[in-house]
Amino acid sequence: MKFSPKYLPIIIGAAFALGTVFGSLMNAPVEDQFLAKNNSKTKLNKLIDFINTEYVDNVNTDSIVNLTVDNILSKLDPHSVYIPPSEQAEVAESMKGDFVGVGINFYMYKDSVAIIKPVENGPSAKAGIKSGDRILYAGKTKLFGRKLPSDSLFSKLKGTKGSEIELTVFRKSEQKKLKFKIKRDVIPIKSVDAAMMLSDNTGYIKINRFAETTYDEFKAGLTKLKQKGIQSLVIDVRDNGGGYMEEAVAIADEFLKDKQLIVFTKNKNGATEKTYATKSGSFETGKVTVLINENSASASEILAGAIQDNDRGTIVGRRSFGKGLVQREMDFNDGSAVRLTVARYYTPTGRSIQRPYAKGNEEYFKESEARIKTGELYVKDSIKVADSLKFKTPKGRIVYGGGGIVPDVFVPMEAEHGNENVAYLLQTGIVGHFVFEELDKNRNAFAGLRFNEFLVKMKNSDTYFRKFKNYIFMTGLDLKLDKTKNLVNRYITAEFARQLYGELYYYDVILKEDAMIKKVLNVKK
């Protein structure tokens, strides 16, 4: 049972009261001597013992310890966090870059596990599972008609490599039950969503996070694009919250010349560790552009800062998040972990881009709201920079520290002013769910359509825009979509393309009218 924070003061007060009464009754000099020598660590341990042995009600003291750890960390900085055992395995898996399972993308639709799309070349796809199938049973475990949390569903489908599981599915298009025996295998969790051509000589790579496999994925994508003759590369780290610094450093090394500084860190003792580029860069002369926005953070900012401070490329977009703290993960015996800030990082010119957090975590994470109010997402001149945090690149360009990477080329948010919520909504899972449900009603409406025919079909009809408006209304969201109709239609079409044709087709649609991509391609070579 998780213990509510609101009872904590009562419990602590009761525990101290018990301790005081108990001490006075015993009147033992030994106890006084012990308390006199007591330090903070012992005091905390003893308090937990008091609650365990003396408190009138049964209390889950583990939950109190977790609350205490959370409270301590919240006093340090916004990025030092405690990860409980229930979450640590999932976090570690995401950063590892793969897991063992059956290879499906799914969500709970009404009372059943609906398959959005099997992973390409994964075990389920090879076995014959299709988009729209409902999983009724995993082995003998019933999955439909139950409100199962996602972690329970995952645990039923995961297992050891090579182990077999029988899935019973209902295929709506055929109105019948089917059984598939599937051997679990390693399923990659991609951190590079796309590596594709934007034009005859410009390549594009989208990185969604920096995990253990990101550099390898990036290098494979870059190699493929180089074989197609790119002279220019766009690296998209918009909405990339970061991850492993080493992966960002390895990617930056592909573009910088030998011995150019990539990043340096300082710990509490002032010890500095500098990381330089090597001779092994494979794209040291081609043009480089990095796309950032207000959600690009940490490792994304390290990459953007290294490119900007070395005059190696152009940063396009909006001011990044502003996270310049380095965390190290430290494990506890119970499977939990603490991610503790151990250093600050600095870009090659010496900038710390960490924004202030002295006013507390709540205010810190509300800063994105302030950017909306000040108009920063729409007008570059609204970005507040301090002259005291001004730095110069080797070529004399002015760059600023103290709160994110300020782009060289500013591109405002695409939504009309006052409709930021629409732009953010379109990047959530709600569009994916809407599209799945529309396909589920009549998947045959798109059967046999080639991609170009699909695009014509979507362009010539407002049907899905009207349906999406109604879908949003039925969810209880009061959003006006008419002023952002083109943007909404683009995201709807892109999501249909993803579910019907695959991930690259999503980007093929979404990037054609992307404001930042347009800015990049219009820049004179």
From TrEMBL:
The protein's name in its UniProt record: S41 family peptidase
A Pfam family assignment: Peptidase_S41
Domain Tail specific protease: 175-356
Keyword Transmembrane helix: no
InterPro entries hit by this protein: ClpP/crotonase-like_dom_sf (IPR029045), PDZ (IPR001478), PDZ_sf (IPR036034), Peptidase_S41A (IPR004447), Tail-specific_protease (IPR005151)
SUPFAM superfamilies per record: ClpP/crotonase (SSF52096), PDZ domain-like (SSF50156)
Cross-referenced NCBIfam families: prc
Gene3D superfamilies xref list: 2-enoyl-CoA Hydratase, Chain A, domain 1, 2.30.42.10, 3.30.750.44
Similarity-based family: Belongs to the peptidase S41A family.
Keywords: Hydrolase, Protease, Serine protease
Lineage: Bacteria, Pseudomonadati, Bacteroidota, Flavobacteriia, Flavobacteriales
